[in-house]
C-alpha cells in the first residue's frame, strides 16, 4: 500500500510517499480502506517534532480518516465488511489501508460523503467539546468566537447557533468576516485594540457568556476582558503564536472560568464520548444544520503539499487527502517487505 511517511522530523516537504506492508485487523480492530483523510495543524506539528505526543520514527501521520471496512478482527461486533466509517486515531491516517480499534470507529450515515465525514474530525470535535463539555453552553447565552474564519471557528459558530446561542464572531480580515457571516454569526467584529468595547457594545454591556479562543496574544486579553459575569473562556489554541498570560484579578472580579481543551484526550480516555460526539456531528451534517467547509482536496501522494498549505495558514476551510475508491485488490499472498521503497512524487 502507499502511505505518507516521516523518517525524520522536519518541514512538510520532508514527508515522502512510500510503499509499506498492509496491516491486518487484529483482535478488536477494524481494517479500513481509506478514501479520505483530514489534514490538520496538529499534523504539521507532529511532522515537525513540535507536538506534545510524538510517535517513534518512521511513522505515518494523520489523525482522522473515512473509508470502507475491508475486514474485522476477532471480537468486533459493531462493524462489518462494506460499512462506510469514520475513525479518529493518534497517527497513521495518511495511508491507503489502516487498522483501527473498534471503539474509535463510527458508521457514516447514507447521505454524508466520506470526504465530508473525514473533514468532520479534529476541528469540529474541538468546537463540539469546547461548547458542550467544557463551557456547558446553555440556550440563550452569547458565544464569542475568535479566529472565526478558520476551521474550528466556522463549526463553533454553527453549533452555537444550532444550540440556541447568539454568536459574536471575531475575524482578522474582510474575507474571514464574510465566511463567519455566511455560517450564521449574528455579529461580526474585527480583531483589534477596541475588541473588548466592541463586544460590550453588541451585547448591551453584558459581554460574552462563553468564549471560544483560538488566537492567543492580545486577542485573548481583549476577549477575557469582554467575558460576562460567570462567563467561561475555553483556551483552544494560539494561532497568533503568542501564548497569553491571565491576570487573575479579572477572574476574581467577575467569577470567570478559564478552561483548557485538548480534544484528543477524549478519544483516548473516553472513546465512547468521542464516538457519540462524532455521531452527533454526522447527524447535524445529514439534516443540514452543519456544513463543514472543505477548501482543498489533494491525492494522497500530495500529502507534503497539503501539509504545507495548512502550515502557511490563510485557509477558511478544511484540507482533505483522497485515495481512489477503485484501488486494485491486494495480492492474495502478502509480500514480505524488509524495508520501505520511496515513490517519486512531483
UniProtKB/TrEMBL annotation:
User: For the region Disordered, what residue ranges are annotated?
Assistant: 324-346
Q: Where is the Enoyl reductase (ER) domain?
A: 10-321
Its ancestry begins with: Bacteria, Bacillati, Actinomycetota, Actinomycetes, Pseudonocardiales
PANTHER family given in the database record: QUINONE OXIDOREDUCTASE-LIKE PROTEIN 2, SHORT-CHAIN DEHYDROGENASE/REDUCTASE
Write down the Pfam families for this protein, in alphabetical order. Answer: ADH_N, ADH_zinc_N
Q: Tell me the GO molecular function terms.
A: oxidoreductase activity; zinc ion binding
Q: Which CDD domains match?
A: QOR1 (cd08241)
Protein name in the entry: NADPH:quinone reductase-like Zn-dependent oxidoreductase
Q: Which organism is it from?
A: Prauserella rugosa
Where is there biased composition of kind Basic and acidic residues? 336-346
Amino acid at each position: 500500500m502507499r502511505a505518507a511517511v516521516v523518517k525524520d522530523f522536519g518541514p512538510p516537504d520532508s514527508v515522502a510517499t512510500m510503499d509499506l506492508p498492509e496491516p491486518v485487523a487484529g483482535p478488536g480492530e477494524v481494517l479500513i480502506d481509506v478514501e479520505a483523510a483530514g489534514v490538520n495543524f496538529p499534523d504539521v506539528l507532529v511532522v515537525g517534532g513540535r507536538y506534545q505526543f510524538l510517535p517513534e520514527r518512521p511513522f505515518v501521520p494523520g489523525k482522522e480518516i473515512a473509508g470502507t471496512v475491508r475486514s474485522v478482527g476477532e471480537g468486533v461486533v459493531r462493524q462489518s465488511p462494506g460499512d462506510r466509517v469514520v475513525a479518529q486515531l493518534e497517527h497513521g491516517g495518511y495511508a491507503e489501508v489502516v487498522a483501527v480499534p473498534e471503539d474509535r470507529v463510527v458508521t457514516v450515515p447514507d447521505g454524508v460523503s466520506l470526504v465530508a465525514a473525514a473533514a468532520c474530525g479534529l476541528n469540529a470535535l474541538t468546537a463540539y467539546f469546547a461548547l458542550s463539555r467544557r463551557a456547558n453552553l446553555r440556550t440563550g447565552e452569547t458565544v464569542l468566537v475568535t479566529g472565526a474564519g478558520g476551521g474550528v471557528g466556522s463549526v463553533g459558530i454553527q453549533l452555537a447557533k444550532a444550540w440556541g446561542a447568539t454568536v459574536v464572531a471575531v475575524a482578522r480580515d474582510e474575507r474571514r468576516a464574510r465566511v463567519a457571516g455566511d455560517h450564521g454569526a449574528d455579529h461580526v467584529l474585527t480583531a483589534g485594540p477596541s475588541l473588548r468595547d466592541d463586544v460590550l457594545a453588541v451585547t448591551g454591556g453584558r459581554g460574552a457568556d462563553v468564549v471560544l479562543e483560538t488566537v492567543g496574544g492580545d486577542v485573548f486579553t481583549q476577549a477575557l476582558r469582554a467575558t460576562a459575569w460567570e462567563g467561561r473562556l475555553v483556551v483552544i489554541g494560539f494561532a497568533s503564536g503568542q501564548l497569553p498570560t491571565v491576570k487573575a484579578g479579572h477572574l476574581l472580579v467577575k467569577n470567570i472560568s478559564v478552561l483548557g481543551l485538548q480534544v484528543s484526550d477524549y478519544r483516548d480516555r473516553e472513546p465512547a464520548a468521542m464516538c457519540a460526539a462524532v455521531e452527533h456531528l454526522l447527524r447535524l451534517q445529514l439534516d443540514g444544520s452543519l456544513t463543514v467547509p472543505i477548501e482543498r482536496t489533494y491525492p494522497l501522494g500530495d500529502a507534503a503539499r497539503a501539509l504545507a498549505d495548512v502550515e502557511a495558514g490563510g485557509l477558511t476551510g478544511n484540507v482533505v487527502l483522497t485515495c481512489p475508491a477503485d484501488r486494485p485488490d491486494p495480492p492474495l499472498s502478502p509480500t514480505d517487505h524488509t524495508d520501505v521503497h520511496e515513490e517519486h512524487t512531483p
